[in-house]
TrEMBL record:
SMART domains linked: Gln-synt_C (SM01230)
Top-rank lineage group of the source organism: Bacteria
InterPro entries per the UniProt record, alphabetical: Gln_synt_N_sf, Gln_synth/guanido_kin_cat_dom, Gln_synth_cat_dom
Organism field: Pseudorhizobium halotolerans
Protein name as annotated: Glutamine synthetase
Family per similarity comment: Belongs to the glutamine synthetase family.
Length: 456
């Protein structure tokens, strides 16, 4: 990433009193920002070199519970430290927080100072390095959808997340008048992200009441993942500051559409000038490299689904007729397919993965997609014919795993992922998935009580 806000800029802003706080953040397994708020003067005097955090941060669930069964850390091992190494190329001002700058950190072993293999940023960097060794650079873009509510987070919690009031009463897909009513929040999000060095393209209403989408310019894979986690955190903070709440839950309500994070992917030469997916003389403009890459995505579609849909709730989104896919097939400009060919016959040709929900961790999702695509290229996999028509009604075609339980088994048994990520990394995330399932399996839901309280 080429820094637009440098360490020298930070030092000047600290000296002039414009910045007094620096957020030093790692990205946890759930894709959230975790870290410390530094007094800015202390940060520029030395903390920019490194700081520390408890190593349980990469071994907890959504509730920050310490979970047994992890090889990397445990009560038996004493939950020691990680070293957080600020990547100063990610440094930026945060306009929506007064006097604040933010930097993302790589997570290093406290003793060896090697990157922790199961840290999300390290997992993606490993796949990026594999491509670099092949003379290839991956560019990606994520489209984030979310729901906007008129309550605050505190009010939503106090109500038990019942009777929530959406910002809109009707489907607002591309709707200008309705989104005008939401501009206090959405303009603040667009301008805030732009001010934080994230080039915003647009926001729009999405395909359900109260649903929004924010789109930013594509970038190399690591930069895009960095942008993604800052976007999510920023959207929540900005909404909170306006007395509103946002959810990135993949399926917040049975009657509402799900929220996705479609991932657009293309490969280019190492200098970023030559599109390796484009062949002007080929059908649809698809190069052999692109065909092999997509074939890899499809061959390993089931194995990588966990990294696109990491929670029980994620699988509630995969419903026919909702614009969320149910089949892991590819098709030309077809929104019923799990993988959609976009920009055909142009230099902007790319493949859009429509499987991922807004709850995914972008580093893990991108790494899994790249690993599958690289395997397709290395083994010169042959791409199956494009699917045509309504994929929801397609028979005898590859399906997206129906449950987290199914996706976990496929991930754990994947020779491709074990080769690309390493056994310890796959085992680490297998344990995370198992815990999510175990927690759900022992919970009593409102649906069960309402259905069976009297009639069972």
């Amino acid at each position: 990433m080429t820094a637009t806000y440098t360490f020298d800029d930070l030092k000047r802003d600290v000296a002039d009193g414009r910045i007094d706080t620096v957020l030093a953040c790692l990205v946890d397994m759930q894709g959230r920002l975790m870290g410390k708020r530094f007094q800015a003067q202390f940060f520029v005097e030395g903390a920019y070199e490194e700081t520390h955090s408890c190593n349980y941060l990469l071994a907890t669930d959504m509730e920050m519970e310490t979970i047994s069964g992890y090889k990397a850390t445990s009560w038996e091992k004493g939950y020691g430290d990680y070293t957080m190494k600020p990547d100063l190329s990610t440094l930026r001002r945060i306009p929506w927080l007064e006097g604040t700058a933010l930097v993302l950190c790589d997570v290093l072993d406290h003793h060896t100072h090697e990157e922790v293999p199961h840290s999300p940023r390290a997992i993606l960097k490993k796949q990026v390095a594999r491509l670099e060794a092949m003379g290839i650079k991956a560019f990606m873009a994520t489209e984030l959808e979310f729901f906007l509510f008129d309550q605050t987070y505190e009010q939503a919690h106090a109500s038990g997340y019942r009777n929530l009031k959406l910002a809109s009463a009707y489907n607002e897909d591309y709707h200008i008048f309705q989104t005008s009513k939401e501009e206090e929040v959405m303009r603040a999000i667009r301008n805030g992200l732009q001010g934080a060095g994230i080039p915003v393209e647009n926001s729009k209403g999405e395909a359900s009441a109260g649903q929004e989408e924010i789109n930013v310019r594509y970038a190399d894979a690591l930069t895009m993942a960095d942008r993604h986690v800052i976007i999510k955190n920023g959207c929540k903070e900005i909404a909170w500051s306006k007395g509103k709440a946002i959810t990135f839950l993949a399926k917040w309500n049975y009657n509402a559409a799900g929220s996705s994070s479609h991932i657009h992917q293309s490969l280019w030469s190492a200098d970023g000038k030559t599109p390796l997916f484009f062949d002007k003389d080929a059908e649809h403009g698809m190069s052999e490299t692109m065909k092999h890459y997509i074939a890899g995505l499809l061959a390993h579609a089931g194995e990588i689904t966990y990294f696109l849909a990491p929670y029980i709730n994620s699988y509630k989104r995969f419903m026919a007729g909702t614009f969320a896919p149910t089949k892991a097939i590819w098709s030309k400009d077809n929104r019923t397919a799990g993988y959609r060919l976009c920009g055909d016959s142009t230099k902007g040709i790319r493949i859009e993965c429509r499987v991922g929900g807004s709850d995914l961790n972008p580093y893990l999702a991108m790494a899994a997609l790249l690993a599958a695509g690289i395997d397709g290229i290395e083994n010169r996999m042959e791409l199956e014919p494009a699917f045509e028509g309504d994929a929801y009604g397609g028979k005898d075609i590859r399906e997206i795993p129906h449950t987290l339980r199914d996706a976990t088994a496929l991930m754990s048994g994947s020779a491709m992922l074990r080769s690309a990520f390493g056994d310890d990394v796959v085992d680490h995330y297998t344990r995370a998935a198992q815990w999510e399932q175990e927690e759900y399996d022992r919970r009593i839901t409102d649906w069960e009580v309402a259905r069976g309280f009297e009639r069972a």
